[in-house]
Design goal:
The chain is α/β, with parallel strands linked by helices. The chain contains eleven helices and 15 strands. 32% of the residues lie in helices and 17% in strands.
């Protein structure tokens, strides 16, 4: 069955991508991913300078017991996945390492979509030119699109990663700088760790972004072991904040998605966070995303998710078949169908006739005028 879709002007064989993360950190992984059937991949984020990761594990998985409230990263039988936690930096390979490989991947799979994720500093003009250098190098190797990493949650520098994504002006500037040289679509990957993601999305669209990808991981800490009193992930007793992904963030990321797609109903969105089945992905499509991206589920499935992509494709095919009477042929036919079902609480029906007015009038809350005094 034809599962293809067009997103930001690019034709995808299916709307499922591996997101920027370990599954896309090498040429061999990306080639395996395309062979397995992923419609697209976003490379592990590429920078100009080498990074050095922490000693020991960069990612761990938090699991929940079925018969108790225990949550722990300790390996044990029959516990269910709750989330991934990571403090991995961007690719430890430099742009020079990536460039020939991007070209080779594109040659081997010209009909699959290769998105280059890039990141640089943004504190001065020289650093902004680094964004352009990265963009041009990837574009020259025939990458199909660029994704700007404005969302890595564990950068020290105030002008990198999610620290850029928290600043609407910087989001706009970085996007504009890249758009000035890009001939291919530019997606901005935003951080969920802000008060109102619509503000930063507006900055990205003002800068010319063709799409928003959301979410990156949520800023978080590993839990403390009650026996040792040490964090479950630590080096010499120390930890930094890192990023939470996997099942736990699916509902959180959906709330961000709903905010975004309602604010910008005519724009393009790539949904990320907690997806491992078509039923999960369906939430993002119905709220208004044209593609979705997957990381944690793929990491746990032979590193690149061969079973995950098979199930996603089969799930979409089954869904389209089941909905044939509606005449739906592609995801586009149902993207955004439930976007407007998310409303203010006062719009939800009450059991009695008496109206609820969102706490504005005589319901025990202070009246709006009193609050502003
Ligand atoms: C170990 C690890 C490394 C990651 N590295 C990157 C990265 O380099 N660039 C990026 O944009 N996102 C990165 N991410 C975030 C993922 O692409 C994705 O946005 C996030 O994990 C949520 O999706 P999930 O719930 O399917 O895991 C990383 C995630 C993990 C777990």
């Amino acid at each position: 069955m034809d599962l293809s879709t067009t997103f930001t002007g690019l034709r995808f064989q299916n709307p499922f991508l591996l997101s920027s993360a370990p599954p896309t950190e090498s040429e061999s992984n990306i080639l395996r991913a395309f062979e397995a059937g992923w419609g697209g991949v976003v490379t592990k984020t590429i920078g100009l300078h080498p990074v050095v990761n922490v000693v020991g594990p960069k990612t761990k998985f938090l699991r929940a017991d079925a018969d108790s409230a225990r949550l722990s990263m300790k390996k044990r039988p029959s516990a269910a996945l709750h989330s991934s936690w990571n403090w991995e930096l961007i690719s430890d390979k430099t742009l020079d390492w990536w460039v020939p490989r991007l070209g080779r991947i594109k040659q081997a799979f010209p009909n699959h979509i290769l998105v280059a994720s890039i990141m640089a500093g943004s504190g001065n003009d020289t650093e902004l030119r680094h964004w352009q250098e990265l963009a041009l190098a990837c574009q020259n190797e025939k990458c199909d699109a660029l994704e700007l990493n404005l969302s890595c949650p564990h950068m020290d520098r105030p002008d990198m990663g999610s620290n850029v994504g928290k600043d609407k002006e910087l989001v706009s500037i970085v996007t504009k700088v890249v758009k000035d040289v890009a001939k291919i679509p530019v997606w901005a990957k935003l951080t969920p760790s802000t008060t109102d993601i619509v503000v930063e999305a507006r900055g990205a669209f003002l800068g010319g972004a063709d799409a928003i990808s959301s979410s990156n991981t949520f800023t978080s800490l590993p839990l403390i072991d009650p026996q040792t009193l040490e964090f479950e992930v630590q080096v010499d007793g120390l930890v930094s904040t890192g990023g939470l992904g996997g099942p736990a963030i699916l509902p959180l990321s959906l709330a961000k998605t709903s905010q975004l797609t309602q604010a910008f109903p005519d724009k393009s969105f790539s949904g990320i966070g907690g997806i491992s089945t078509f039923e999960h992905a369906l939430n993002y499509f119905l709220l208004g995303c044209g593609t979705v991206q997957i990381c944690t589920a793929a990491m746990l499935d032979h590193a690149i998710g061969p079973n995950v992509i098979r199930d996603l494709n089969q799930g979409l095919a089954r869904f389209l078949e089941a909905q044939a009477d509606k005449g739906w042929k592609t995801v586009d036919d149902f993207v955004g169908l439930r976007r407007d079902r998310v409303v203010a609480q006062s719009k939800i029906r009450r059991p009695t006739e008496k109206d609820y007015r969102g706490g504005y009038e005589t319901e025990g809350y202070a009246a709006a005028e009193e609050l502003t005094r």
